[in-house]
Design brief:
Oligomer: single chain
Strand order of the largest sheet: 14-15-16-13-12-18-19
InterPro entries: Ald_DH/histidinol_DH, Ald_DH_C, Ald_DH_CS_GLU, Ald_DH_N, Aldehyde_DH_dom
Structural class: alpha/beta
CATH architecture of the largest domain: 3-Layer(aba) Sandwich
Bound molecules: adenosine-5'-diphosphate
CATH topology of the largest domain: Aldehyde Dehydrogenase, Chain A, domain 1
Keywords: Oxidoreductase
Family: Belongs to the aldehyde dehydrogenase family.
Protein name: Aldehyde dehydrogenase
Number of domains: 2
Low-confidence stretches: none
Strand content: 15-25%
GO molecular function, one term: oxidoreductase activity, acting on the aldehyde or oxo group of donors, NAD or NADP as acceptor
Radius of gyration: 23 Å
């Protein structure tokens, strides 16, 4: 039973389900209920009723804070099991699963800490002293939280924590390939004391469950992380009642390496930036622009290091890179590599299947890639780095911005001035200098251009689940 509606576990009425596959072995690890519009409606009604009767919001705020902290504690108490489940469903290396689950727990502490601390304002109004004016921050209502498969547990936490902190109720919809661990999350949420009906879980196909949530008139807000194509569909489907949308979509993040870069920092930085999670991250630094003086040395060093990455089952303790999520994703990535070959790129390392079971792809570095090749223009979402040399920094900046995406970017240089110049010039929501990874809950995360709408993280991420109300009182 993978649906949780109004505090009750159930299966889809139709009895339909699909298998969850371990991407490292191709074996089935469990069955996931395929809900239909009926279950979506029941979950939305439960969340709506819970919102209207204020069963969550009426709890005194210190109690809600305690519950949020108890969720974090509950996650940490079972961290090892959750991490192993995450590896079995998603394929990521165990050390990474531990880190992402632990990060999910921290999201509840970070946003739990905000409860009771976000206030409206009071102020004068021009109409004069006879009026008292203030603003209120109120929860937006019922939120649909649609989660992708590339960091399933952590990304569910990144949405659920601010939604609960804001006082919303929620319907959580995990991705088809990674639904099972989400069930553990909602169980912990309930054990910590969140009342039944406040958080509901509906598993199933995106085209059915996700679509029904997007169209449902009783959903007030959608927080979605996924592909730009699905994001566009959501905008259309949700227009009926003008849902508030937070969209964290695709990316094709540029990485610019200048001649003066420190190779010791740059090589692991660039490689980690693309190969982490087998390249299945929206922030992956997938386009490398390296200056001519450092290009050959850098590509060689990247290729050497990439070819030595330990690829394997995430449960093996030496594994540095796991499989990609599914046969479909495997075929898509291999298709991109093939298209690169047809467009004349040089495959410096990788480019092939790794092993003969599961969905493993060798860490791949493509060099001398034409600026208009598909592997440069489109998001591959796999362990594939496309590299191009440049002479002139202005050209590199122009090419970095020559993309419909604007999620992230990075520059490697010893020059503070050049680093700052590039960080200002690249149109992206997150930018790293001499690195490609760390960020924090307080830092807004999201994209320019077709990488999305709005920001998750920080106060902005919390306010995305809130409305503002202006109240004006006549005193005399
Ligand atoms: P991918 O193509 O990599 O699977 P998606 O953007 O399609 O990425 O998936 C991200 C999430 O969006 C998943 O939970 C998926 O089920 C859901 N989804 C897919 N299609 C739709 C849709 N039409 N409406 C709403 N959600 C969808």
């Amino acid at each position: 039973m993978t649906l949780l509606i109004d505090g009750k576990y159930m299966d889809a009425d139709s009895g339909e389900s699909f298998q969850s596959i371990n991407p490292a072995t191709g074996e089935t690890i469990g069955n996931v209920s395929a809900a239909g519009a009926r279950e979506v409606d029941a979950a939305v009604r439960a969340a709506r009723a819970a919102f209207e009767d204020r069963r969550w919001l009426c709890l005194p705020y210190p109690q809600r804070v305690k519950i949020m902290f108890a969720i974090a504690d509950g996650i940490e108490a079972t961290l090892e099991d959750l991490a192993v489940n995450e590896v079995r469903e998603n394929g990521m290396p165990l050390h990474m699963a531990r880190a992402t689950i632990s990060n999910g727990a921290e999201a509840f502490r970070y946003y739990g800490g905000w409860i009771g601390k976000l206030h409206g304002q009071t102020g004068e109004i021009a109409a004069g002293e006879a009026f008292h004016a203030y603003t209120l921050k109120e929860p937006v209502g019922v939120a649909a939280l649609i989660v992708p498969w590339n960091g399933p547990f952590m990304l569910a936490c990144h949405k659920l924590a601010p939604a609960l902190a804001a006082g919303c109720t929620a319907v959580l919809k995990p991705a088809e390939d990674t639904s099972l661990n989400t069930l553990n999350l909602v169980q912990i949420v309930h054990e910590a004391g969140v009342p039944a009906g406040v958080v509901n879980l509906v598993t199933g196909l995106g085209s059915v469950v996700g679509q029904a949530l997007a169209e449902h008139p009783d959903i007030d807000k959608i927080s979605f992380t996924g592909s730009t194509a699905t994001g566009r569909r959501l905008i259309e489907a949700s227009a009926g009642n003008f849902k508030r949308l937070s969209l964290e979509l695709g990316g094709k993040s540029p990485v610019i390496v200048l001649d003066d870069a420190d190779l010791e920092l740059t090589v692991p930085g660039v490689l980690g930036g693309i190969m982490n999670n087998s390249g299945q991250a929206c922030i992956s630094g997938s386009r490398l622009y390296a200056q001519r003086g450092i290009y050959d040395k850098l590509i060689q060093a990247l290729a050497d290091r990439a070819s030595k990455l330990v690829v394997g089952n995430g449960l093996d303790k030496n594994t540095q890179m796991g499989p990609v999520i599914s046969q479909k994703q495997f075929d898509s990535i291999m298709g991109y590599i093939q298209s690169g070959v047809e467009e004349g790129v040089e495959v410096v390392t990788g480019g092939k299947r790794h092993g003969d079971a599961g969905f493993f792809i060798q860490p791949t570095v493509l060099s001398h890639v034409p600026a208009d090749a598909r592997v440069v223009r489109e998001e591959i979402f796999g362990p594939v780095l496309s590299a191009m040399p440049f002479e002139d920094l202005d050209w590199a900046i122009k090419e970095a911005n020559n993309s419909r995406y604007g999620l992230a970017g990075a520059v490697y240089t010893r020059s503070i001035a050049k680093a700052q110049r590039v960080s200002r010039a690249v149109r992206a929501g997150t930018f790293w200098i001499n690195s490609h990874r760390p960020t924090d809950f307080w830092m807004p995360f999201g994209g320019y251009k077709e990488s999305g709408w709005g920001r998750e993280g920080g106060i902005q991420g919390l306010e995305a689940y809130m409305e503002s109300k202006s109240v004006i009182t006549r005193l005399y």
